[in-house]
Prior knowledge:
By secondary structure, the chain is an all-alpha fold. It is 79% helix and 0% strand. The protein has one domain (3-288). Helix 3 (67-90) packs across helix 8. It starts with a helix and ends with a helix.
Amino acid sequence: MSSTVKAALWMIGAIVSFSSMAVAGREVAYALDTFEIMMYRSLIGLFVVCLVLTATSNWHVVKRDKLGTHVIRNLAHFSGQNLWLYAVTAIPLAQVFALEFTSPLWVLVLSPLVLGERLTRMRSLCALVGFFGILVVARPSPETINPGVLAAAAAALFFATTNIVTKRLTRTETTGSIMLWLTAMQLVMGLIAAGYDGDIALPGLAELPMVIVIAIGGLTAHFCLTNALSIAPASVVIPFDFARLPTIAIVGMIFYNEALDIWVLVGAALIFGANYMNILNETRRNRVA
């Protein structure tokens, strides 16, 4: 089996996981707020990560010398995930996913400030094309700009910050260490945010399967994506990742009677084109180097 076929199979798993998370988040929102969902997700995730570290005898990879950086990373991810969970309940699912795809463009803009990477002419062009795609998706006006759109756009920015800080952490930290602190710290954050009013709702028998889907889906989505990137170039993987958009658009149409908005698809195509153009450019630069 070729590496491209293997990457495609891993990406099918990622697409199913991301889409399942979005549907489960919408289905459980009537009973739990986003903070409670994140708290239970982190609790289940922490149990799974501890189980894996124990089964593989890898507790020694967990480090404590970068806890401050882990806090920054997990604050960004916690904020982004809560905004994303809110957005999937407030606007069409396809619009949420289209705006989420802008996260790599924010990485382009923020990397020179955080990682000291150079903002080249091509990277600037890709960012401009991508942000034009954002305008097409959101079509800003008093009628179209609403809390859901703003939440999805802000979530992409927080996810970009998470990715940048993760890139810095991977210089010294393993995936096991990053995942343990991710679930442990976000469990504490979720507990504080959900319990600030003294009232934490428990998931009922109807909600518990959805919470489990969100928790396991979050882990498997990134596991599948990481495996796909490990066996095939990003230039091969990203087009498969873009298949999330038409997939979730169809899901929204079938289950929630959400109309297929042509401008969301056009804007998403511009965002995808900007991301793909940047990947091809970076691939050529690395080959020359």
